């Protein structure tokens, strides 16, 4: 086992050395190429004493030819480095996989009672984690519905003062939509949470949704106003009544929404605690497996 690990590390080390050597050569070639480019520029654009260079045009052509050869060599070197790097990465991955397989086999064959006990805790912990995740997701879905319904109630309340005569049917429709969303949110609140938090959940969903007085009521009120000479009073009373209905429903629903958020926060704490327990269990298992592997290696080295 120790010999196999040493051989694998030796092969990887040789490949890494070869790759480092190629990169070093590429650096030197790049420096030489940059110097050659400067020489070409100097001779193509002479200044001062460069005008007196004999056969300068032929020198430029010779330097350009040399630069083209250097570019080709540089490209070949880059291709070699790329190929070597890819091969090294593949070999490293294969070697790491072999080492992991070797580690897993030794740990499995020489497993201890402590490791078996740790492994036995995982199924229950994973099931608990999944249960709490699903519960939290369902709670948040219910909360989102109630929040959406309360938003529609506020829309209806803002629309009511501007609704006059026959147009107040729009506010009635908004309130009906809000009631539907709030009912869905309360009814979809998971029963697992209701069982766990029985006292807190006792009042969730017990909301009265009275009907807003709509167009027919307003039309009737206008007729009574014209008969008794109290123009506008009856319609105003209907409007104020509808405002009180919306406020009462929104207040009751908001209180129950606060309970749902409290339960959501508590379930979140439980979930985070389980996540920490899972991380701790993984750390303990890894430590135990390292101890098993190190003990096996120590016994082999003593033989």
Features:
303 residues; single chain; mainly alpha; 8 helices
Would you write up a description of this structure?
- Helix 1 (about 1-45) packs antiparallel against helix 2 (about 55-110), helix 3 runs antiparallel to helix 4 and helix 3 (about 115-160) runs antiparallel to helix 8 (about 235-300).
- Residues about 215-235 have low confidence and may be disordered.
- The longest helix has about 70 residues, at about 235-300.
- The chain is built from 8 helices and no strands.
- Helices cover about 85% and strands about 0% of the residues.
- It is mainly α.
- It starts with a helix and ends with a helix.
Task: Give the radius of gyration.
Answer: 40 Å
Poorly predicted regions are 215-234
What fraction strand?
A: under 5%
Structural class: mainly alpha
Average of pLDDT: 80
Anisotropy-based shape: flat
Distance between the termini: 12 Å
Elements, N to C (H/E): HHHHHHHH
Largest sheet: none
Give me the number of helical elements.
8
Strand element count: 0
| Helical coverage, percent range | over 70%
């Amino acid at each position: 086992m120790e010999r196999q690990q040493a051989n694998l590390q030796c092969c990887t080390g040789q490949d890494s050395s070869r790759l480092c050597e190629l990169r070093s050569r590429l650096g030197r070639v790049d420096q030489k190429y940059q110097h050659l480019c400067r020489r070409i520029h100097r001779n193509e654009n002479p200044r001062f004493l460069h005008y007196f260079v004999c056969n300068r045009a032929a020198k430029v052509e010779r330097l350009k030819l040399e630069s083209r050869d250097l570019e080709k060599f540089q490209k070949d070197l880059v291709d070699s480095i790329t190929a070597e790097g890819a091969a090294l990465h593949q070999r490293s991955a294969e070697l790491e996989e072999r080492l992991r397989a070797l580690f897993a086999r030794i740990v499995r064959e020489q497993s201890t009672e402590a490791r078996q006990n740790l492994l036995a805790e995982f199924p229950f912990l994973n099931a608990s984690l999944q249960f709490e995740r699903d519960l939290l997701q369902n709670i948040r879905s219910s909360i989102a519905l109630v929040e959406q319904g309360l938003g529609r109630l506020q829309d209806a309340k803002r629309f009511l003062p501007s609704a006059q005569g026959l147009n107040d049917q729009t506010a009635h429709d908004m309130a009906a939509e809000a009631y539907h969303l709030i009912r869905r949110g309360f009814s979809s609140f998971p029963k697992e949470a209701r069982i766990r938090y029985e006292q807190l959940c006792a009042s969730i969903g017990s909301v009265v949704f009275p009907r807003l007085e709509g167009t027919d009521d307003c039309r009737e009120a206008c007729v009574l106003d014209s008969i008794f000479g109290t123009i506008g009073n009856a319609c105003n009373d209907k409007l104020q009544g509808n405002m009180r209905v919306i406020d009462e429903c929104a207040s009751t629903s908001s209180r129950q929404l606060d309970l749902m958020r409290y339960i959501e926060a508590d379930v979140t704490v439980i979930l985070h605690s389980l996540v920490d327990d899972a991380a701790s269990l993984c750390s303990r298992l890894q430590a135990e497996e390292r101890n098993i592997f190190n003990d096996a290696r120590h016994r082999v080295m003593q033989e």
